Amino acid sequence: MGRAPCCDKANKAGLKRCGKSCRLRWLNYLRPNIKHGEFSEEEDRIICTLFTSIGSRWSIIAAQLPGRTDMISRTTGTPS
């Protein structure tokens, strides 16, 4: 996979991030194809439906939401 692009920038900025920290930050927050912001009504419906049927298996739920990660999906809160 190689090093995430943020590692070099973080180290130059004086942050002492390890490789794992940089990789996770890249995968969960910095990749250009990740959607940020509010979930659409369709995404909310998918999350609620899947949560009801499979529980809090966020990586499986996120796989059904293009551009969303399990970390972003998880932090939306548990659907009621």
Automatic annotation (TrEMBL):
One of its GO terms (cellular component) is nucleus. It comes from the Eukaryota. Residues 31-70 form the Myb-like domain. GO terms for molecular function: DNA binding. Pfam families: Myb_DNA-binding. PROSITE patterns: HTH_MYB, MYB_LIKE. Keywords: DNA-binding, Nucleus, Repeat, Transcription, Transcription regulation. Residues 31-70 form the HTH myb-type domain. It is found in: Nucleus. PANTHER family: MYB-LIKE DNA-BINDING DOMAIN CONTAINING PROTEIN, EXPRESSED, OS09G0431300 PROTEIN. This is Uncharacterized protein. It comes from Rubus argutus (Southern blackberry).
